[in-house]
């Protein structure tokens, strides 16, 4: 298995995007969701290892996380450019697999015309009904204010409670864990994912035109044991995209084991 530990791509605005790659074959690029990056998400490496005979799998630190740099001001278009730079390194066209809000970034990138062969999306966290509270209308503004005021922990707490839907008492335990400094370090990027999600967590139907330009095969997955709002959200996306196939993944929640996902991605290639 071939591995590149300290490689990087350079985005259009000069931001350095660090990545690790495993295997040989068709390029497969993994996009993490909010707060995650390969150093703290072992599933990326595990998937890359399991697919190393068929894919060259790339997992990267989204801007502002891990070993990647960042450049102000932020715009979703800059993250699309980051992915474009990585595809240029990996070779086009690429298969793109996105987790959670990373799946929404993958959708936006495909709609923007990046050379993507196919999309695999796991549980984009859309809220399209009243099965859970919507994001506060001022969610992004509150995140920005907390970071600007030097309160990254408050931004992380807002994400955990308002976006992830965890009870406030859950935060107390996380604040005492070894994971909390990591959350605070990536807190400035949480608003990035808030901007990517846009109005898609408001309880309203998904925008009919945002991804209308997507023509590539798209696999939309949700775990059968996940939150009800994610089931309805992924079903809504599958209904919206003419090229989409909906795949319920038996027993899984807002994640899935590497062997399950690797098998799905291998089958999707056929």
TrEMBL record:
Gene3D superfamilies for this protein: alpha/beta hydrolase
Keywords, alphabetical: Hydrolase
Keyword Amino-acid biosynthesis among record annotations: no
SUPFAM superfamilies on file: alpha/beta-Hydrolases (SSF53474)
Entry-linked InterPro entries: AB_hydrolase, AB_hydrolase_1, AB_hydrolase_fold
Residue ranges of every copy of the AB hydrolase-1 domain listed in the record: 49-254
GO molecular function, one term: hydrolase activity
Keyword ATP-binding among record annotations: no
Pfam family, one: Abhydrolase_6
PANTHER family to which the protein is assigned, alphabetical: AB HYDROLASE-1 DOMAIN-CONTAINING PROTEIN (PTHR43433:SF5), HYDROLASE, ALPHA/BETA FOLD FAMILY PROTEIN (PTHR43433)
Annotated protein name in UniProt: Alpha/beta hydrolase
Natural source organism: Phytohabitans rumicis
């Amino acid at each position: 298995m071939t591995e590149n530990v300290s490689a990087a791509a350079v985005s259009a605005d000069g931001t350095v995007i660090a990545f690790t790659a495993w295997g040989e074959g068709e390029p497969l690029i993994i996009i993490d969701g909010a707060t995650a990056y390969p150093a703290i998400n072992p599933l990326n490496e595990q998937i890359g290892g399991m697919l190393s005979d068929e894919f060259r799998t790339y997992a990267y630190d989204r801007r502002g996380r891990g070993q990647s740099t960042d450049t102000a001001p932020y715009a979703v278009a800059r993250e699309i450019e980051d992915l474009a730079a990585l595809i240029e390194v990996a070779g086009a066209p690429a298969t793109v697999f996105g987790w959670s809000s990373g799946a929404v970034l993958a959708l936006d990138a495909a709609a923007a015309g990046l050379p993507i062969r196919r999309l695999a999306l796991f549980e984009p966290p859309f809220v399209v009904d009243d099965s859970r509270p919507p994001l506060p209308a001022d969610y992004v503004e509150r995140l920005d204010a907390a970071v600007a005021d030097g309160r990254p922990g408050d931004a992380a707490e807002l994400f955990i409670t308002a976006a992830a839907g965890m009870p406030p008492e859950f935060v107390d335990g996380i604040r005492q864990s070894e994971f909390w400094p990591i959350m605070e370090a990536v807190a400035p990027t949480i608003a990035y994912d808030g901007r990517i999600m846009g109005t898609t967590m408001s309880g309203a139907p998904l925008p009919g035109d945002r991804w209308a330009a997507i023509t590539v095969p798209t696999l939309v997955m949700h775990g059968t044991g996940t939150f009800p709002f994610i089931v309805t959200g992924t079903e809504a996306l599958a209904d919206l995209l003419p090229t989409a196939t909906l795949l319920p993944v038996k027993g899984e929640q807002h994640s899935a084991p590497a062997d399950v996902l690797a098998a799905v991605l291998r089958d999707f290639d056929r």
